[in-house]
Amino acid sequence: MTPDLFERSIFDLINEKARALEDCLMSDVIFYHGSIYPNYFRTFRDFVEEVALRSEREEKTISVVLRTGGGSADTTEKMVNVLRNHYEKVYFVVPDMAMSAGTIFCMSGDKIFMDYASSLGPIDPQVPTPDTGDYVPALGYLDKVTEITKKGQLEQADVVLLKSLDLAKLALFEQARDLSIDLLTDWLVNYKFRDWTVHRTTNPGQPVTPDEKATRAKQIASDLADHKRWRSHGRNLDVGKLKDLRIEIDDYTNDLNMRSAIRDYNDPLTGYVDRTRIEFYLHHHQVQS
Predict the structure, then answer these.
(1) Cα atoms in the Cβ-side hemisphere of radius 13 Å centred on 154
(2) What is the pTM of this model?
(3) Under CATH, what is the fold of the domain 3-283?
């Protein structure tokens, strides 16, 4: 069998597994691998438009099988707007990881599906620096500046570092942090908490007020942005840690049928992008990215 025929046979199987996962989740299903950067937005927009146009399902729901190390909060917001323009409900499925801006992306969903091997991460959007345009994690810089400025007496190395940071750069980092927290708070209230109408633990049976939803959302956003708590930009936040933050996760660890359906689709695709070293890749069984 030639390499082309071999690859085609693999994707015939992946497409079959994609249809099976759509039936399992009762939604359209797409696979997203790569960073969340502005230069990928138009490809994503056009891809989702085509998937929605070709959809034969009635649920008006899409599930995004997401694998990302993060990216831009601004781009995340634009991608969320695209999904919400075409679908009434949006689910995120994280078989492996969705870090930083990927975590913010997931918080825009009505549901987040994970198992014991999945992880999200602390929110720390990446922003392009004014001088080089390179993307850097914003909160890491802000935390370091805060740590230094709280010292009673600055060391020479601290003075050198502070002099190397201009006000425009710090302002950009602060704006990215505030935008991330605002987006996450709004999306939790409007989507994740949309069906949270009655208390289940505290004051069980009592109606949940809009202020209570907003308070819970702000606390979650604050916790996810607290790098002193997590001690690492790349800290893996598994299902247990997320539930400790009172984030509702649809844990499919013990649902063997769903776990198999997700892995049968995800694992060959992640194997393919890792083997071919593709930085950004979208998949749907009817649409080519």
Answers:
(1) 14
(2) 0.85
(3) 2-enoyl-CoA Hydratase; Chain A, domain 1 (3.90.226)
